[in-house]
């Protein structure tokens, strides 16, 4: 989520809640949109994580170098890396079963509880709005946004399937590219706004959180779908590799500069080009 400089600072618990709501809405939208198109479902999740790291962080770093700050960020990146690696034995079975999905969702719940209980140096500051009124407005926005997400996700997938059938493009490639980028548009918008405000470090928090939710949450609730062999042999290894690269950068460098951002963008172009084969 994008925190603004203007005005009072919300409590970290509010940021935590808003991030959960945003990702839960995306999960519900995805679950409503994917029945019958497992390749698009898996492609959009794997592709979205690759887009988040190579395209979005690459663009953000190119606009303004990203400062790496905080042990919490490194901890969350380790969780993201672990979640990516866990998919390898799951995909090797050729089927994302209900038990695997339940384990992923349980992992997400454990991570959220653990993260919520971690001490924070930030203090809550009131925003001058009565709590009941603020809660009502927030609830209405959440309901409206959830409905819009579900309808929009359905149109996105229907349009993607039509393109795939009309032009002879595989549903997997459509999921890995068009649908993946569409899924990552909220992160892209947030990160670019932050970068133009010279607050590119916000992009890292947003991307790491989104990637964790994509794997443990969205993939977890879309269980009982077949896994095409190419995901195990190509797309998942790419996702694990770029996650490992991001983890290494966060552990070893104080800043992700424009040179690395450009290399990430080139890597994304190379991935899309290779994925067509």
From TrEMBL:
One GO cellular component, as annotated: plasma membrane
Topology in membrane: Multi-pass membrane protein
Biological process, per Gene Ontology: intracellular calcium ion homeostasis
Pfam families with a match to the protein in the record: Na_Ca_ex
Ranges in a coiled coil: none
Localization, UniProt: Membrane
Keywords in alphabetical order: Membrane, Plasmid, Transmembrane, Transmembrane helix
Parts of the chain that traverse the membrane: 40-64, 76-93, 99-116, 128-153, 173-196, 208-228, 234-252, 259-276
Source organism, top-level taxon: Bacteria
InterPro entries according to UniProt: K/Na/Ca-exchanger (IPR004481), NaCa_Exmemb (IPR004837), NCX_ion-bd_dom_sf (IPR044880)
Any GO molecular function: calcium channel activity
Domain Sodium/calcium exchanger membrane region, residue spans: 32-116, 138-274
Protein name as it appears in the record: Sodium:calcium antiporter
Organism: Qingshengfaniella alkalisoli
């Amino acid at each position: 989520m994008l925190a603004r400089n203007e005005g009072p600072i919300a409590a970290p618990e509010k940021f935590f809640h808003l991030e959960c709501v945003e990702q839960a809405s995306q999960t519900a939208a995805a679950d409503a949109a994917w029945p019958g198109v497992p390749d698009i479902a898996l492609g959009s999740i794997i592709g979205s994580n690759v887009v988040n790291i190579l395209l979005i962080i690459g663009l953000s770093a190119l606009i303004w170098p990203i400062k790496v700050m905080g042990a919490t960020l490194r901890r969350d990146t380790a969780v993201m890396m672990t979640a990516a690696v866990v998919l390898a034995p799951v995909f090797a079975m050729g089927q994302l079963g209900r038990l695997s999905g339940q384990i992923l969702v349980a992992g997400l719940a454990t991570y959220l509880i653990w993260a919520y209980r971690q001490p924070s140096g930030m203090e809550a500051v009131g925003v001058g709005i009565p709590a009941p009124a603020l809660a009502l407005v927030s609830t209405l926005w959440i309901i409206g946004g959830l409905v819009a997400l579900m309808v929009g996700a359905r149109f996105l997938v229907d349009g993607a399937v039509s393109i795939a059938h009309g032009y002879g493009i595989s549903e997997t490639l459509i999921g890995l590219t068009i649908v993946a980028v569409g899924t990552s548009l909220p992160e892209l918008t947030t990160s670019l706004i932050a970068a133009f405000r010279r607050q590119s470090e916000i992009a890292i928090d947003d991307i790491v959180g989104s990637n964790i939710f994509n794997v443990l949450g969205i993939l977890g609730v879309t269980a009982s779908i077949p896994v095409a062999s190419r995901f195990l042999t190509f797309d998942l290894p790419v996702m694990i590799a770029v996650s490992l690269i991001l983890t290494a950068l966060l552990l070893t460098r104080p800043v992700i500069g424009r040179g690395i951002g450009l290399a990430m963008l080139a890597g994304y172009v190379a991935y899309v080009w290779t994925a067509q084969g």
